[in-house]
Amino acid sequence: MSSLTQLWGHIVDSYSPFTIEVTGVALAQLSLTVLFGSYELLTVDEKRRRAMGKILPGILKNISTATLVHSSALALVSLWTGASLWETTVTPVNKNIPSAGRFLIDLINTALLFEISFYYCHALFHTKFFYKHVHSKHHHFKEELAIAAFYSHPLEFVVMNAGLVVVASWLLGSHVLGMLLHGAVSGAIAHFVHTGEDIPGLMSHEGHHVAPNNNLGAVGILDRLHGTLYRGSQIKRTH
């Protein structure tokens, strides 16, 4: 038995499924903020370090709010089903660690489902009412910083940065570790593209900030289908 399997088995024996799922999601989000934020503190100029200090409280508020919503949703499910709260989750939590192949399949399937849901939710947040009252907070932040990926209105964060991953994992029956992997990968990509850089082969997120009604998806599949793909050769953020 590998040390990783032993560690996971110890976690499952020591904590309730509810605690593992909710805490795991929160820790994954917090870890991304800490890792990317620590790197940026050492590499960015003083102006952007001050900007980081201004948005960090909002990011921590968003993570806390998402954790509260996740917990409250599970509490409602527990009341509805009559099951113990501590045994209530949206993903299977057990000692059986999925195989590498299952992790890969889950990652691909949840990414495709996430792309579809992200596109339409993002398009909704770009309608007049939701942009003015919700999404504009993210777009009005002008500094190119990784941690700005999680700087948004709490409603937007709960829906797009947390909720879509959890719901996609629930619909596909992913193991809790599969859900955490998908959240970590999608979150890491979101942080990277908010530095102003693009990942080769993926849709340009900077293009979305240049042309806000374009590049609404996560990877570009739906943008190609709906004709909202921005193909500008020179990208400069304007917000």
Automatic annotation (TrEMBL):
<dbReference type="InterPro" id="IPR050307">
    <property type="entry name" value="Sterol_Desaturase_Related"/>
</dbReference>
<feature type="transmembrane region" description="Helical">
    <location>
        <begin position="63"/>
        <end position="83"/>
    </location>
</feature>
<dbReference type="GO" id="GO:0005506">
    <property type="term" value="F:iron ion binding"/>
</dbReference>
<dbReference type="GO" id="GO:0016020">
    <property type="term" value="C:membrane"/>
</dbReference>
<keyword id="KW-1133">Transmembrane helix</keyword>
<dbReference type="GO" id="GO:0008610">
    <property type="term" value="P:lipid biosynthetic process"/>
</dbReference>
<dbReference type="Pfam" id="PF04116">
    <property type="entry name" value="FA_hydroxylase"/>
</dbReference>
<feature type="transmembrane region" description="Helical">
    <location>
        <begin position="20"/>
        <end position="42"/>
    </location>
</feature>
<protein>
    <recommendedName>
        <fullName>Fatty acid hydroxylase domain-containing protein</fullName>
    </recommendedName>
</protein>
<feature type="transmembrane region" description="Helical">
    <location>
        <begin position="176"/>
        <end position="193"/>
    </location>
</feature>
<keyword id="KW-0472">Membrane</keyword>
<dbReference type="InterPro" id="IPR006694">
    <property type="entry name" value="Fatty_acid_hydroxylase"/>
</dbReference>
<feature type="domain" description="Fatty acid hydroxylase">
    <location>
        <begin position="110"/>
        <end position="228"/>
    </location>
</feature>
<feature type="transmembrane region" description="Helical">
    <location>
        <begin position="145"/>
        <end position="170"/>
    </location>
</feature>
<keyword id="KW-0812">Transmembrane</keyword>
<dbReference type="GO" id="GO:0016491">
    <property type="term" value="F:oxidoreductase activity"/>
</dbReference>
<feature type="transmembrane region" description="Helical">
    <location>
        <begin position="103"/>
        <end position="125"/>
    </location>
</feature>
